[in-house]
Amino acid sequence: MLLLQAWGDAGYFMKKISNIEEGFYRWSQYGREKPASKETLVKYRDCLSWFKRDVGDLGVKKIRKEDFIKLREKMQARGTGSARIRSVVFTMKAFLRYCREELGLKVLNPDLVKAPKREKREVRFLAEDKVAKLVNSIKIKNDWAPKTHIRKPRPNLHGLRLRAFIETLLGTGMRISEALSLDKNDIDFEQRETKIIGKGDKERTVYFTKRAIGWIKKYLRARDDSNEALFISHCEAKRWTRDSAQTVIARFSEKVGIEFSAHTIRHTAGTQLLFNGTDIKTIQIFLGHESIQTTARFYLGIDKRKIKEAVDKNLKYT
Fold first, then answer.
1. CA 198, CA 287: separation in Å to the nearest integer?
2. What pLDDT sits at residue 300?
3. How many CB atoms lie within 10 A of CB 49?
4. 251-254 contacts: CB < 8 A, separation 24 or more?
5. How far apart are CA 39 and CA 54, in angstroms?
6. What is the tens place of the pLDDT at every residue in 257-299?
7. How far is it, in rounded angstroms, from Cα 84 to Cα 80?
8. Residue numbers annotated as active site
9. What pTM did the predictor assign?
10. pLDDT number for residue 3
11. Are 96 and 107 in contact (CB under 8 A)?
């Protein structure tokens, strides 16, 4: 009976899926052993929008290898980096594999689609002096206004939020989406830790520095709302979005004259551990990389000081 029901469900969805949008929704919501995290769903939706914009919302069975060639050409023409192109291609390949293997639809074999090669990128991070300049430039108190008869400067909620957010990234190495998904009650303030669902829907424990926890507490004490989210939009009283956070960071970056992003801050945390003698395996766990090869690709060889020390100390001839 259950088998017949399963076949019936599959038949229903095979009829139901007439275009990418419908099929993609089915896969992202139900086509996995467990539901995808909010961050993963956002990534899926973003990749789908890129494909639909450049190729169109085709019928699933009408997707051809040539459509991926068209996709790459259009994305490259706009100056899109290979990492983003790879992300879109791999997401669509996974979707096609689901349609082919799970639903039995006669769609393009995803193995015929080749993704662009991964480019080797240098890790961008901030030196300690720039970190100090950056955080100390954030305005956390409003100026005293004599006309209001307020003798004590009031907290600047937007400034406190930015400081607490940057300190959170500096003190945990989290990705921007991971930090923005936190709720106030998620954090064990005494143990300075929390559990998050990160990239690939992997759960991991994240540890906060005392400094990060201190700034989070200052930010929360200044708030008088009941929103459960750790970081919120104070204009709309809802969870701070990725787009809004990136916009605020970009504007602040330009204002202080220090080029950085949330991902730069994440790399800064990783390199700070490396420079202070932390082994690569610990850094892998800290950053939530699934493979140690990922961590090694980014961080091994980054400390040029050690190379110079090695040359001076060990590169000798008799």
1. 10
2. 73
3. 11
4. 252/137, 252/138, 252/162
5. 23
6. 999 999 999 999 999 998 888 888 898 999 998 888 888 877 7
7. 7
8. 175, 199, 263, 266, 289, 299
9. 0.66
10. 33
11. yes
Question: What would the pLDDT profile of 139-192 be if each residue is shown by its tens digit?
Answer: 998 866 555 555 667 889 999 999 999 999 999 999 999 999 999 999 999 999
Is pLDDT of 96 > 70? Answer: yes
Render pLDDT for 206-233 as a digit per residue (tens, 0 to 9). 999 999 999 999 999 999 999 999 999 9
Q: Specify whether the CB–CB gap between 118 and 194 falls below 8 A.
A: no
Chain region(s) in the chain for CATH 1.10.443.10: 128-309
| Total residues found in the chain within this entry | 318
Handedness of CA 263, 265, 267, 269 (dihedral sign): negative
| Cα–Cα distance, 101 to 96 (Å, whole number) | 8
Tell me if residue 127 falls in helix, strand or coil.
Answer: coil
Nearest CA among 36, 119, 127, 129 for reference residue 85: 119
Statement: 2-112 belongs to CATH 2.170.270.10: no
Rounded to whole angstroms, how far apart are CA atoms 136 and 119?
Answer: 35
User: Closest by alpha carbon to 175, among 42, 300, 301?
Assistant: 42
How far apart (Å, rounded) are the C-alpha atoms in residues 278 and 193?
Answer: 19
Q: Specify the 3-state DSSP secondary structure of 83.
A: helix
**What's the CATH number of domain 128-309, 1.10.443.10, 3.60.15.10, 3.40.50.1240, 3.40.50.2000?**
1.10.443.10
User: φ and ψ at 195, to 5 degrees?
Assistant: -105, 135
CB-based contacts of 114, cutoff 8 Å, min separation 6: none
Whole-angstrom distance, CA of residue 295 vs CA of residue 266: 13
HSE (CB half, 13 Å, CA atoms) of 155?
16
Interstrand relation of 238-239 and 232-233 (parallel, antiparallel or unpaired): antiparallel
